[in-house]
Amino acid sequence: MSKETKKTKMPEQNPKERISNFDEVTLGYSAEDAINEAKRCLQCKNPLCMQGCPVEIDIPDFIALVAEGKFAEAAQKIKEKNNLPAICGRVCPQEEQCEQKCIVGIKNEPVAIGRLERFVADYVRDTEVIEGVMKQEKGKVAIVGAGPAGLTAAADLAKVGYQVTIFEAFHEAGGVLTYGIPEFRLPKEIVKDEVDKIKQLGVEIKLNHVIGKIKRVDELFEDGYDAVFVGTGAGLPRFLGLEGENLNGVYSANEFLTRVNLMKAYRFPEYKTPVYVGKRVAVIGAGNVAMDAARTALRLGAEESMIVYRRAREQMPARAEEIHHAEAEGIKFKLLNNPTKILGDENGFVTGMECIKMELGEPDDSGRRRPVPIEDSEWIMDVDTVIMAIGQSPNPILLKDSPEIETTDWGTILADDRTGKTSKEGVFAGGDTVTGAATVIQAMGAGKRAARAIDEYIQGSNK
Ligand code: FAD
Ligand code: SF4
User: Which InterPro entries does this one have (predicted)?
Assistant: First the structure.
């Protein structure tokens, strides 16, 4: 056991260089770094870290294998529970999950569980062989949506002997991992690799299939599927309803990031799908999505890229690491400011944004101090591009044809937290479409729980 009080540092690209490329910012541990970090683990008899992992990885066991230099075995241990470890190791908010519970974290920095997970997943990337694919005899399951929720449910069901087909609306699988999170945080090659390994388990992925348009949920049952899992995410952008929101130069973060990631706008002219980015960009919001949009705008040539947020710094919802990376890259933070109007010229292009200054009042329902406008404090921000990153809602396409699936007032699907069961017989749901915009690991946890419940449901119906 090592006496090191701090996490082994993660090597990363220099901020001055990385703002002009889309290569990954963090470079990953070396074998020596990984072993040193693994030796910080106390191998607790009651490993609290595991309570913080929604997909139930046997964390101390995998870390013990890393400490012994048995990296392939460590990867195998993780894969028993998690089919997307190279992804989770990069984007999961470990500081709020396993690492928050780690005993070492009481006095020192917790063990860098996420960085170790990433290291072993990358280590076996090119060498791992998927063995022992189950015969698909237990029944047929349709999964709608190839994001982390759908992929996890599909992999877990294939592993126990189901014939699984995923129907995905886009021309690539991965959900937000592919179209939302930028290349410099999560290379698409990594996503493709982990999706390919799920296909090797026997899962079929039908791309360009929008359920609700091409087929209704009822038709999936008519096609012989015994159960349906809905993991359609929350991809419908929200706007503020401001004057000027329809001007040229106003995007939703969703559209902006999809154009860059999925349509590869950052590789124009090799890909013939450019995206317009002006010189001065304001991104409204302060979550991970906002940080991604602001950092992407900078890499696409913006001279100034700003986060505009109506609350204060401590209330910003983005991961601490993402805020730190954004600041190091030169993103400016205009906190306690709320946009009130977007201004344009006679050709319909953005020329500025009116904002009002805010102060913090009493706590609201979320427990955070409510931002209150300061009277007569309006001012004009000199910007030519505005990106809205204020949240997303579930897309209602699938639900229009299946009114029996009950939803909340927010448009999210009502599903049992433990099983994912919806109000429609044989239909289960999980991930952002149930919780609203949340995290990769929460979506995966929901996919895992639903897979278990679907197995029980089908086996129960077959009795
Ligand atoms: P999604 O990933 O949204 O996948 C849903 C899939 O369903 C999509 O592929 C969609 O095309 C498909 N679909 C939708 N409707 C249909 C239909 N009718 N028929 C067929 N297919 C359909 N979380 C983190 O943990 N860490 C981060 O750093 C992080 N950063 C983020 C950055 C951005 C820009 C965004 C947008 C989100 C981020 N998140 C992050 C949140 C995280 O990505 C989501 O919580 C997670 O992807 C939700 O998974 P899901 O499977 O429920 O949905
Ligand atoms: Fe290791 Fe921390 Fe888990 Fe204990 S809680 S087993 S120290 S990772």
Answer: DPD_II, FAD/NAD-bd_sf, FAD/NAD-binding_dom, Helical_ferredxn, SudA-like
